[in-house]
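Researcher: Let's do a round of design. I'm pasting the structure tokens now; please hold your answer until I've finished.
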């Protein structure tokens, strides 16, 4: 098997609202869209984010109404404090303040209009590197 691309697909009540949140605040662009569907991309993200409305007939029946819950869209960034300041200046609610974990991860979180957690993270705390 050779993987050529990656996407995460999330079923949310309002795909357009979630898509707009990533476009407006996280620099994604809309690659494709249709009623109840939005596919977002970003050259440096390494993953496409797809939002789907509940009940889409293209989904298997047992998956059609299962909403995205308990997951985190996490993006590693170069300037965590700069991104935090930018999002705050844009009026985005920070739902988890900047937190430093004992293993070196630093992160903060926001939520999109459908409640999907979007986390920005780095491994570059003072004196820290990815290897620790």
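Researcher: That's everything. Go ahead.
Model: Designed sequence:
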């Amino acid at each position: 098997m050779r993987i050529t691309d990656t996407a995460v697909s999330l079923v949310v009540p309002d795909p357009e609202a979630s898509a707009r949140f990533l476009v407006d605040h996280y620099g994604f662009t809309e690659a494709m869209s249709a009623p109840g569907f939005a596919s977002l991309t970003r050259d440096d993200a390494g993953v496409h984010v797809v939002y789907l409305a509940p009940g889409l007939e293209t989904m298997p029946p047992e998956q059609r109404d299962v909403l995205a819950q308990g997951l985190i869209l996490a993006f590693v960034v170069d300037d965590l404090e700069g991104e935090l300041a930018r999002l705050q200046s844009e009026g985005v609610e920070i739902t988890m303040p900047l937190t430093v974990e004992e293993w070196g991860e630093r992160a903060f979180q926001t939520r999109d209009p459908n409640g999907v957690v979007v986390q920005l993270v780095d491994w570059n705390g003072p004196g820290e590197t990815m290897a620790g």
